[in-house]
Amino acid sequence: MTKIPKSIGQVIEKYQRNAPVNVVGIANDLGINVWERQSLVPPVSGMICPDKINGGESGFSIIVRKGDPLARKRFTVAHEIAHFILHRDKASDGITDDAMYRSGLSSKEETEANRLAADILMPYTLVQNLVNEGFKSVPQLAGKLGVSQTAMSIRLNIPT
Ligand SMILES: [Zn+2]
């Protein structure tokens, strides 16, 4: 897992005991409110921004596009949580991601956020538990974890 502060790691781990990982629960515990809005216009798929009125205790909100598929929205929430953890110092004007998870940040930072998002949604211990319970195929694991089959395949190093 990406190196992150221990207190934040503990919050995430608490939610990783059961599948699917409750990403909104993680966000809320970190003091971030999560909103779905119809008004996000493609290609924007998500953002994290300071939000004095509707934000959580941290002062931030995550907004995802209401019309996106559930697995997509879950990945977007995890990706924006990752920006909050890793790049909060650059989020004072908000970070807006398009459908390819590109924003004003560098591609290195986007890669970091995608990696941490995968760590959050598909922890290897939980994947292993599911495999032990008999959920062995990519579609089964993706369904249990609430992620896309593409994300699951990448996580398992299966060519997509
Ligand atoms: Zn991003």
Task: Describe what this molecule looks like in 3D.
The protein is 46% helix and 14% strand. The chain has one domain: Arc Repressor Mutant, subunit A (Orthogonal Bundle), CATH 1.10.10. It has 160 residues and is an alpha+beta fold. The protein is globular and about 45 Å long.
CATH architecture: Orthogonal Bundle
Bound molecules: zinc ion
- Tell me about the largest β-sheet: 4 strands, mixed
Number of β-strand runs:
4
Distance between the termini: 23 Å
Helix-and-strand structural type: alpha+beta
Strand order of the largest sheet: 1-3-2-4
The number of helices is: 7
Gyration radius over CA: 15 Å
Q: How much strand? A: 5-15%
Which descriptor suits the 3D outline? globular
CATH class: Mainly Alpha
Average residue pLDDT: 95
Number of domains: 1
Helix content: 40-55%
- What CATH calls the topology is Arc Repressor Mutant, subunit A
Low-confidence segments:
none
The helix/strand series, from N terminus to C terminus, equals: HHEEEHEHHHH
Chain-wise SSE layout:
Blueprint: H1 6-14, H2 23-29, E1 32-37, E2 44-50, E3 60-65, H3 70-87, E4 95-98, H4 107-121, H5 124-132, H6 138-145, H7 149-155
Parallel strand pairs: 1-3
Antiparallel strand pairs: 2-3, 2-4
The structure holds zinc ion.
The site of zinc ion (ZN) has 7 residues, from α3 and α4.
Short description:
This protein is an alpha+beta fold and 160 residues long. It is 46% helix and 14% strand.
